[in-house]
Design a protein that fits this description.
By secondary structure, the chain is mainly α. Helices cover about 70% and strands about 0% of the residues.
Length: about 325
């Protein structure tokens, strides 16, 4: 029953955005004495890259119990034991990153104490090598904490609907999650920044509440599609000069004030979300996997003219320009 209710509510939300746009199309067609367009189904967003294509592989670093015991002065034995127990092996990606972060900090701090001087040459070399390996692994672990998490992947779910016009405040609710994840990424090597598991999981849980990225992208695709269809009505009238009415008898074009308020907010909120996502991804010091780079350029870019945000803005500007041309020529 809960599943059916969720699907029904999603379908209703989908109609709320489309109904506004189709209502405007019908009023515009009536004003121009044309048949309203047959609404086409907008394309879905692209599939988010598969798990193996979006994450960095992290090979296991195996050390014997004797080797770990030899480094007991670094206080890493309990950490390693928790990571290797049954719960540690199935820990969420975010928790694995916190483990890598704690282990790196203990190793790094240990290297700057008197402990290395008390080790024999082999153990001292082992500590140096392990510290270096963990330093190199940490950015990969933080990337995987995000891109290997279900909360993040579900934000791009294709099984979603356009964000309803009355749900744009969801951007305000989820933006702090992106801000914290960016802060955690930027400060993971900062000894003065203290990670907090509960805060991290709380922000990830906020992302779980709805597939916001997908909903925004689909709302942009829907708006672009309907505005393009409405623009075709204006082009048809402009192409037939004889259809222009005398100024005193020409019916006014339908008002767009309410629709424009929603489109402006959709444009602004989408830009805020995509900008925050760009800042989060740019905070990672690694070159992203090619599948993520391609997806980002195609769907998340604010600069790519073919990406949903720019395409919707262009379609809206074009429609407004066609309205002005028609008013100037025929009215």
């Amino acid at each position: 029953m809960a599943l059916l209710l969720t699907v029904w509510l999603t379908g209703c939300a989908d109609g709320a955005a489309d109904q506004r746009l189709q209502d405007y199309q019908q009023r515009l067609a009536s004003s121009l004495e044309l048949s309203p367009p047959e609404p086409a189904t907008p394309d879905n967003i692209g599939a988010f890259p598969e798990r193996q294509a979006r994450r960095f592989p992290l090979e296991e670093i195996r050390q014997s119990l004797l080797d770990v015991y030899a480094l007991r002065g670094c206080h890493i034995s309990n950490l390693v034991a928790r990571r290797n127990n049954q719960l540690g092996r199935v820990a969420a990606p975010s928790q694995r990153w916190l483990y890598e972060l704690k282990l790196w900090r203990r190793l790094s701090d240990c290297w700057n104490t008197d402990v290395p001087d008390a080790l024999d040459a082999d153990d001292r070399q082992r500590l140096a090598r392990l510290t270096q390996l963990k330093t190199e692994r940490l950015p990969r672990a933080s990337w995987n904490a995000l891109f290997d998490s279900s909360e993040w992947a579900d934000s791009f779910s294709r099984a979603s609907s356009p964000l309803p016009p009355d749900a744009l405040d969801a951007v305000n609710e989820q933006l702090p999650a992106l801000a914290y994840l960016r802060e955690a990424t930027l400060h993971q090597f900062d000894p003065d920044w203290t990670p907090d598991s509960a805060t991290l999981e709380g922000h990830l849980n906020t992302l779980r509440q709805r597939p916001l990225t997908a909903e925004l992208l689909r709302a942009l695709l829907l708006a672009e599609q309907r505005l393009t269809e409405a623009s075709a009505l204006l082009e048809t009238t402009l192409a037939r000069a004889e259809d222009c009415h005398a100024p005193e008898t020409a019916p006014p074009l339908p008002d767009m004030a309410s629709l424009n308020r929603w489109l402006t907010r959709l444009e602004d909120q989408s830009a805020r979300w995509l900008s925050a996502m760009r800042d989060l991804l740019d905070a990672h010091p690694l070159e992203p996997p090619s599948a993520i780079a391609d997806y980002r350029h195609r769907w998340l870019s604010l600069d790519n003219p073919d990406a949903p945000w720019s395409a919707m803005v262009t379609a809206r500007e074009r429609h407004q320009a066609l309205r002005q041309r028609l008013i100037k020529r025929c009215r």
